[in-house]
Amino acid sequence: MTTKTLLAATALGFGLSLAAAGANADELKLGYSLGPDSHYGQSAHAMADKLAELSDGKWTIKEFPANALGGEREMVEGAQIGTVDLVVTSTGPIGNFVPETLITDIPFLFKSYDHAHAVLDGPIGEEILAKFPDNGLIALAWGENGFRNLTNSVRPVKEPEDAKGLKIRTMENPVHMEAFETLGALPTPMAFPELFTALQQGTVDGQENPIGVILNAKFSEVQDYLSLTQHVYSPALIIMSPAVWNDLSDEEKGWFKEAAKVGAQAMRDKAEADAADGVAQLKEQGMTVVEDVDVEAFQEALEPAYAEYAKQFGKDNIDRIRNYQE
Ligand code: EAX
Q1: Cα of 250 to ligand 1 centre, how many Å?
Q2: What CATH number does residue 283 fall under?
Q3: Which atom of ligand 1 is nearest to the CA of 234?
Q4: Domain containing residue 146
Q5: Which of 31, 32, 72, 253 has the CA that lies 20 to 30 A from 90?
């Protein structure tokens, strides 16, 4: 180490410890996996503003975008042990903590944004959120990642047969893995922070995500084909550490819930805006887009997976979501 870098390192260390010592005790660490201009970023900004407003500046939020606090599973583990205060995350890894969320990850379960919002914001969604405290977590609100679409670098995928043999990165989620295995693809569960490099190096052929994520993570740089499969609605959650929550007054808990609702709405607005205008952007970036995906054939091909889900979650519970009306 040269004297110059040594000095710089010392100054940095000094600066950091000063910052830690001077940190406002009520500044909370919020992590998410995408960039600040993503739907998660919009959500975090809106939530932070609302919380500061409601608490008259008592509670502030410091954002850690782009996996700075680790992948989604790691951030949620951090919330459990109290090293991370707030997380905006997809439900991808959440079933490993709160198994009751897994039912929401079933492919082709939600027909539309309205249907998903009605279920998640209604009694079914509330029942699931109520399971979090038993598992060492607080869930403040349902947000949205969006309908997921398949990308790959091997061939255009229009029919389920086209997906056969493709090595597809899935989230660390058994429901999603079951679906891709049933389609004859080779599901490879992997944390999101590893995904770009895995696509670039060809460790996997493809991945699936909502348009907003594909855009924000710049997957068009490493993927040639996008199929608008819309095969599963991907909910998101705003999660809080019980280490913070348990010490709040009832009034403060109300502020957090209200701020999270505002954050969730901002997330949905941005996710849906990206879905509406993002495909054109991805085309401009050079992706070949398969718009006329044979969605019915995908649903039929997934029948054996549905039989498994019915065994696991109960057909009645699945139908209750599928047929839910406000
Ligand atoms: O939450 O892991 C994933 O593919 C997620 O959709 C992504 O991290 C955004």
Answers
A1: 32
A2: 3.40.190.170
A3: 6
A4: 3-322
A5: 253
